Amino acid sequence: xPSRIDSIVQQRLNKLERIRQRGIDPYPHRYHRxxxxxxxxxxxxxxxxxxxxxxQVSLAGRIMASRPMGKATFIDIRDSSGKIQVCFRSDSIxxxxxxxxxxxxxxxxxxxxxxxxxxxxxxTLEASDFSLLSKSLQPxxxxxxGLTDVEKRYRQRYLDLISxxxxxxxxxxxxxxxxxMRRFLDGRGFVEVETPVLHPTxxxxxxxxxxxxxxxxxxxxxxxxxxELYLKRLIIGGLDKVYEIGRIFRNEGISIKxxxxxxxxxxxxxxxxxxxxxxxxxxxxxxxxxxxLGTNKVSFAGNTLxxxxxxxxxxxxxxxxxxxxxxxxxxxxxxxxRRQVEAIGLDxxxxxxxxxxxxxxxxxxxxxxxxxxxxxxxxPIELSPLAKRKPGSERLVERFEAFxxxxxxxxxxxxxxxPIEQRERxxxxxxxxxxxxxxxxxxxxxxxxxxxxxxxxxxxxxxxGIDRLVxxxxxxxxIREVILFPQLRTK
Length: 491
Hints:
By secondary structure, the chain is α+β, with helices and mostly antiparallel strands.
């Protein structure tokens, strides 16, 4: 016995055949649209009351509702800008009025006519001519409830966009935020560049890469886990301010904050340090929020976030001590720190290395508590193999992470530019990889070290997660809500 969906599809196929028998192409090559629905409404409201003939327009959109009323039918069509009601009258359309019976919710129409306002006050297009532009064979989600199945929303994002108008708004904000970020950086003299996605060595971050194989070269390659090491090559080459906005790939778990591929802004500025980068980040995020939303105060998860500079600044040492009472500077070896961490009831049985223990304290006791924009500064060297040491300290480096809404959105260093020390740091990471089985440890990148030996000026570097920033700007609890096609397990 056929399912309900199968029956609907068959009914629509039958309608499609009848339309073809009328000599109508249900999938024409083109249609000349003069206005979007939003533009048409604005045009009418500007004209309204001025006298003369009402505006004549040609619109196109998807049928979202249909209300037959004897010799008139009212159909709502929607395009990317909004929705408008269309009135079809049998006395003005003639025999083509019968063709409306072959149309379904989801079909795409082109309609021409004049705009008027109904007695109930709704701006409406009175159709004088219309064309079927695409016959929909599959039914849309039930009209009153929309598409609510979360997995189906992500797997069939096109249905999500059709059914849930808010989704389109989220991705419009995302687009405007990225454009605003570019304007900010371009205005400060940065040059946007593009670097390779396929790397011979996966470097620039503590992360596990995706591996692939190039057949022609007979060489294993890795999808980039960061753009850092190539952008630094450009600083060495004399491009003093560079940035890249691009996809990053990390072979890690999936959560409300993590997707295996995500969008990152990385920027590098010669003759700057992490203090300069801190100032730039708070100014940039505030600028983007103001440009995109018209305000620096944003609602997220029930809190009002204030992006106005200056943001709060706190050292990592103080942040962890405040969060759980542990001073990691008093525990300089792994065993001592582990005893302290276990004493407060945190399970770290599967964690090896002092740096990883500190990272666990950050994610457990620091990150969730930082709601207002905050810079956490001065990290242990074990967690930061590409950052310069803090003057006067052998164990800390000039690094900050920016936290907002209980999650990290940015990471930045005063970049290490001593090639001899950088080689030593890489080699220490290789030892960690070998001894602790840490697949996220940095690898020795000989090509980058060769470039560094030619001299890199003092440099401030930044990585900012665009997906998480958009989560904040749109008040979305999951990163999947702000990525058009998040990663899902194949059915």
